[in-house]
Amino acid sequence: xxxxxxxxxxxGSDSGGGAGIQADLATFAALGVHGASAxxxxxxxxxxxxxxxxxxxxxxxxxQVAVVVSDLAPRATKTGMLGDAATASALAILAAxxxxxxxVVDPVLVSTSGHALATHDVLAVxxxxxxxxxAVITPNTDEAAALLGCSPAASLRDQTDQARRLxxxxxxxxxxxxxxxxxxxxxxxxxxxxxxxMAGPGIDTRNDHGTGCTFAAAVAAGLAHGLTVDRAVTAxxxxxRAALTESVQWRLGRGRGPVSH
Length: 261
Ligand code: PLP
What we know:
There is one protein chain. The chain is of the alpha/beta class. The protein has one domain: 3-Layer(aba) Sandwich (UDP-N-acetylmuramoyl-L-alanine:D-glutamate ligase). The strands form two sheets. The protein has a six-stranded mixed sheet. The longest helix is centred in the last third of the chain and has 19 residues. The radius of gyration is 17 Å and the shape is globular. The site of pyridoxal-5'-phosphate (PLP) has 19 residues, from strand 1, strand 2 and helix 7. The site of pyridoxal-5'-phosphate has 19 residues, from strand 1, strand 2 and helix 7.
């Protein structure tokens, strides 16, 4: 008898299967973790963009989390698209009650195609009430700027500064992804004791839809396996790089295709 590690994703559904819940579950499966899910919103979406969003009522999100937590005891949790402030608040209360262990918060605000995935009031609730319970947060440089109320990072120094300042919001670690410098892709991980710059060559692909979700889910999978945040982030970067490389040649849909899993 063996109990596989379990991770819970709380996120939006992407009908195109590239991002959100679908990317998270595919990532969990690829990394040997049983994935449970609480759906926060149903998006009508394909590779070309988000066509409509239908939020799930916050009490229904809470019910999904509650039954999964009591029955399957996830070792790690990941939040992605929360949709509205009521859901963000409800999750913050669950986190404060200790029901969202090893919490990875991916502060999803806007899709790469430019569609708002959260109402304007989600940002403050996420920043003030949810982030203080996070083991790690995974904003890209734009999301980091939104959380900090500053302008987007123009250099590695800005990105490093963002990662450090995000710790002041109360999360245990912050990894700011998506910096670019001389063709290299840069992610910066800040913990209270250390700041690490992780660099790799850029991967030129149109198939990058769902990259952020995949990265955060891979971090949660690592935490579910018992890795430290540091190791989970390193492993997640390698996973995402392999997924992007794998899907470079894909033709899937008419827009930005998904990363492979
Ligand atoms: N749709 C859903 C449900 C998501 O959760 C996300 C990202 O987190 C996206 C779309 C956006 O993905 P991308 O920015 O890679 O297009």
